[in-house]
Amino acid sequence: LSLSGATGAPTSCPEIIEYKGAYYSINMTAGMMVKRSPNLKTWQNCNWVFDTLPSHITEKLGNSASIWAPGFYTVGDKLCIYYCASTLGSQNSLIGLVYADSPTGPYTDMGIVIESKAGDPYNCIDPNIFVDDNGKTYLIFGSYWDGIFMRSIDPSTGLLNEKETTLWHLAKGSGGLEAPYIVKRGDYVVV
Fold this sequence. Notes:
Elements (H helix, E strand, L loop, with lengths): L16 E3 L2 E5 L6 E5 L6 E5 L6 H7 L4 E10 L2 E9 L6 E8 L6 E10 L11 E4 L5 E6 L5 E6 L14 E4 L11 E3 L2 E3 L1
């Protein structure tokens, strides 16, 4: 998907939010470019979340790592950006967290939420947040390997819930499953 009016690299896997009368999306390349639109038709670049890849990414994955699938989410009372980083085709991946005072910053890098390595049943990419009606918050993630997984998130920090350490295995398929979402309609939850 290429967003008209936006300079720089096209936006892939856009997660679009409405915030105070405007729409925002994040480009998943390089240091995550935030884009703004008044109407969902024309877009303009605002600023980068990261000027350079954070050291926690390069130390774990090397300088050839890429950021993938970032999105804005409200967790507790915080506006958060969850993103993943990996090298293409590798299970050495991580999901990171950034606090945002607004979609255009300033940003506070909170580091790694969860990571995967060769031999793990999951691959830490394609993060998505689900907040249930009771306020419980979950990180849904995964791709290929054994499919889609979920962990409880502490809504006060946006990080993994240390009191609820269950790793739920939600879906497995014969092909590569990726880009998980949970949608709740009434009493039904769909993955």
